[in-house]
């Protein structure tokens, strides 16, 4: 815990997912998802703005909401091949059908998208961890 802040904590910071995690020495590290790679970039300089400025364009998220935000962000900003991107395309296809039919997503479609995003988050984070990204944490999506 850092000065009363329970860590880890999760945020949407100007539409970009950010997490604050505890360091082994009791401090904190701020990780922001990269718009270019989907990996994590250390951004400790925004710590005070996030922790004192919640509201406006900074929103606190639960771990479950955070996973969904990260995957929504990655699917929107990244392009690629492989199973993760195929799953992103599946989500988009479900959304496209609902839009073409001029309707909201059904509860079943929302549950499907939620489940796919949980899965792609773990897959993406495991790839990042294997590549040495120190901010990667697939366990966020596994914790319940």
Q: Approximately what portion of the residues adopt beta-strand conformation?
A: 15-25%
How is the biggest beta sheet arranged?
Answer: 5 strands, antiparallel
Name the strands of the widest sheet in spatial order. Answer: 4-3-2-1-5
Structural shape: globular
Termini, distance in Å? 20 Å
Rg: 16 Å
User: Approximately how much helix is present in the residues?
Assistant: 40-55%
- Give me the count of strands: 5
Provide an overview of this structure.
The chain is of the alpha+beta class and 144 residues long. It has one domain. It is built from five helices and five strands, in the order E-E-E-E-H-E-H-H-H-H. The chain has a five-stranded antiparallel sheet, with helices on one face. It is globular, with a radius of gyration of 16 Å. The model has no long low-confidence stretch (mean pLDDT 93).
